[in-house]
Amino acid sequence: AAASCGVAAGALGDWSRAESSRPWHAPSSASLPTFSQKEVSKHTSADVGLWVTFEGAVYDITSFVQNHPGGVDKISMAAGGSVEPFWALYRQHLQQHTGKVAPKEVIAEILSPLQVGWLDPADAAAEAAAAKARSKDDAYANEPERHPALRMLGVTPCNAESPAALMADSWVTPNELFFVRNHHPVPRIAEAEFSLEVSGLGVERRSFSLAELKQLPKTEVTATLQCGGNRRSGLNEHRKTSGNEWGVGAISNAVWGGVRLATVLRSCGLDLNDDGVAAQLQHVQFEGVDGTKASVPAEKAISLSGDVILA
C-alpha cells in the first residue's frame, strides 16, 4: 500500500410500484413510465440528462449534481446505472441501524421530485441480485474496534465524537477517544508493506519505507483537529442542515510525532535555497491510500521552521 506526496449496501428486497409511498418516491410515481437499463445507460451527460437508478426507480439528477456535497465527479460516476454500488461504499447516504436499504431523510427529500420513471422489472431484479452478491464482499469488514465511550454518528463509514463529559479531563485527547471523521473504509496496511512515494517539481522521484522515514530526525507537534461540521446539531434548531448532526465532540487535541516534510523533500533533492524553484512551487499535494487528496501551500510545507510533519 502506498501513500503519495506530490509538488447500496446489502441485499435488496423485491420492489413494487405499489410501494410508491416510500418517502424517496414521488406521490404520483406509480403512473410514471418504465425504462430498460439499456435506455437508462444512455443518460450519462448533461446534454441528454444524468440518470441513475435506486431500488427499481429511475431519477434524473442533472439539476442536482452541481450541489452534490461530494462533488460533480463522484456523483457523475453513477450516471447511467445504479447508485447502489456507490452507496455500499459511501454509506453516509443511507439510514444506519435500521436493517433496511433506505436513504437518509434529507437525501429522500432530494430524490423524490427527481424521479422520472421505473426500471424494467427484469432489470431491477438483476440489479437486486447483483447487490446481494456485492454484499458478500464488504469493504467495511475489517474496521478497527472503537471505544464504547465514543458517541457514534455513523458506523460505516465511522463518524464518532469524543465524549463531551470527558473532553476537559485532559489537555491531550486519549488516542482511543479521539474523534473519528471518515468518508471511506479504513485501509488495513501492514508496516512492512507501506511506502511513501514522492515526486514533483524540483525533487527526484523516490519511495520511502516506514523504516526509512523513522531513520530521519523526529519532530513533535501539538495540534488540534476539528471537523468543519462541529456543533452542526445546534444549527438544526434554527435551520435544517445536511450531514452528520455533530455535537461538541468533533474536535480533539494530540501530540503528533513524525518527520518534517521539508526534511523529506530535501532528501529528495529539493534545494530550498534555489529561488527559481521556490518561485514556481505553489502547493504540495498529498494522496492517501484511500484516494483522498489534500494540499498545503508550498511556502508553509517547505519551511524549515514550520510545523508540517508526516506523522
From TrEMBL:
Pfam families: Cyt-b5, Oxidored_molyb. GO terms for biological process: sulfur compound metabolic process. GO terms for cellular component: mitochondrion. Coiled coil: none annotated. The keyword Iron applies. Belongs to the cytochrome b5 family. This is Cytochrome b5 heme-binding domain-containing protein. It comes from Haptolina ericina. The lineage of its organism: Eukaryota, Haptista, Haptophyta, Prymnesiophyceae, Prymnesiales.
